[in-house]
Structure formats: C-alpha cells, structure tokens
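Hi there,

I know you've been waiting on this one. I reran it after we fixed the sequence typo, so this is the corrected version. Both the input and the resulting structure follow.
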Amino acid sequence: MSRKKIGFVSLYETEVKDSYVGTVLITDHYGIPLEFKCTHSVKATAIQKALYGERLEPYIGIELCGVPLLKSITNTPDFLFISIPYLVGIRKKIDLPTILISRAEKNKDTESSANTSDEKILIVNEYDTYEPIEIEYHPDFAKHDSNLTLEEIQLVFANFDLFEPFDRMRKSVEILGKSDSKFK
C-alpha cells in the first residue's frame, strides 16, 4: 500500500453552545497524527444568525473554518473525510477528494442530504475489527473522487477505524475549551 495522508475536517459546537471550533487532523495511513489545527471559537452575531438562517453553520464550517484551516496545513492529504453532511460543500472550494463518512448502521433511517450523491457505498473492514462505514461523495465530483479514492479507503480502513479521528478531534476541542477561553 502506498503511504497516504488522510485528512479529517469537522466543526464542533462549543461547551456554551453559542460558538463553533473548526478542526483539521492529518494522519498517516495508520491513523498516526501528522498535524492538527483548529480555529479559535467562532461566534455569530444576532444579525448574522438572522441573515444567514439555516446557512449559518455551513458558512461557518466551510468559509470561516474549513477552507482557511486546509490552506494553513503543511501536510496536504490525499483525500479528506468529513462527518457532517453540509461540509461536503467544501469540495467546491478545494481540490481534494472529499468523502462524507458515517457509521453504516446509523444511516438506515436518515434522509439523504441534498448536497451529497444518493449513492452510499458500504465499506466493511476486512478483518471485522471496526464497525462498517458508509461513504458518499459530492454529486459533482462523485465519479472522479471515487475513482481516485475507493480502493485506497478500503486499504486504509484495514489499518484503523476511519470514524475514530473525529472522536479525537472532539476530545481535543473539549480539552482546549477547559484550558483556554479562546476555545469556549
């Protein structure tokens, strides 16, 4: 297997529930961290909340956090995982295959997002070590991105649970929030 760098991007609501922290984690093909960055907390004003409405979180997640974080990293990943459906829109802003990932058993009753293709791909760990995942691509890039990444995703999923880095990032944001007011 080639030595791939895998990116994970997410947005977490802060403990006080009025702002967000964006994160990016780059790992090697075994899940070992190579680089981690996060934003300070981003808090929308009352006017922004009114003006952006339901587009506020995607705006914060993509424009204010995701794209700037990805531009700031030194370890460019070969592909990028996200776990929040609206973040798949980041694919239109970056030139990286972007994959929406979720646990397979939790998707049975959820609606498909308008921002992703309706084609979910089940990925099963060959050793049955990790719970199966489902992946989706941005519909505008689905064929291209799946051709580039599908085989590599299956190989990397043999090495580590691809959903687990999101837990690591969440815990890191919680730790930062307890030790520094810039992350609350």
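Quick highlight: Residues 6-179 form one domain.

Best,
R. S.
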